Amino acid sequence: MYKRVKLKDTVEVPPEELGDVSPDLVKRLLQDKLEGRMDEEVGSVVSVTEVHDIGEGTVLPNRPGVYYEAEFDAVTFDPQMQEVVDGTVVEVVEFGAFVGIGPVDGLLHVSQISDEYLAFDGENQRLSSNESDRALGVDDAVRARIVTKSIDERNPRDSKIGLTAKQPGLGKHGWLEEEHEKREATTAEGE
């Protein structure tokens, strides 16, 4: 999900900064340009960490700045299909829960949370079962698997990640702990 990668990109140094084209300046300009940007190949750039090499500057006609190609390290967030992720519920709506996984949110559709029917309780911002006392609400920790991924490079906030929590070992952390305790109790009784 998170990766440290070596990238190359071009950055424009404005005329007032040309007296000191240092790695720190280039790093700051790269951070302003790239952090938060989504790219299909590398994912979302979380942080530019270190600039290794700054090429020769290039002047373009009718442009005030000088353009430098830089090689640098960055931390990226690139969720992979079928990857199991832990996150926190940030919003509950009638059709499911949005789960914060790194710098983006994934949708855990109501049909992908549990085999039980979950009704939306708008007043308490949660999805509740009529069959058991289980409920999923804002700030609950969840383990889910990524089942769909659609990256929008132009509008990263419009990127969509679909999640499921219906397989064994997935779901709200509290539910997983309950199931683990039940298994341990059953094992202890059988001995």
Can you walk me through this structure?
Helix content is 16%, strand content 47%. The protein has helices at residues 23-34, 173-190; strands at residues 2-13, 38-39, 43-54, 58-59, 66-77, 84-93, 96-101, 104-109, 118-121, 126-129, 135-137, 141-150, 160-164, 171-172. The strands form 3 sheets. Strands 1, 2, 3, 4 and 5 form a 5-stranded antiparallel β-sheet that branches. The protein has a 5-stranded mixed barrel with strand order 6-7-8-13-12. A 3-stranded antiparallel β-sheet has the order 9-10-11, with no helix packed on it. The longest helix is centred in the C-terminal third of the chain and has 18 residues, at 173-190.
Helix content: 10-25%
Name the shape in a single word: elongated
Low-confidence stretches: none
Which class best fits the helix and strand makeup?
alpha+beta
Rg value = 23 Å
* Strands, total number: 14
Mean pLDDT across every amino acid position: 89
Number of separate helices: 2
How much strand? over 45%
Largest sheet: 5 strands, antiparallel
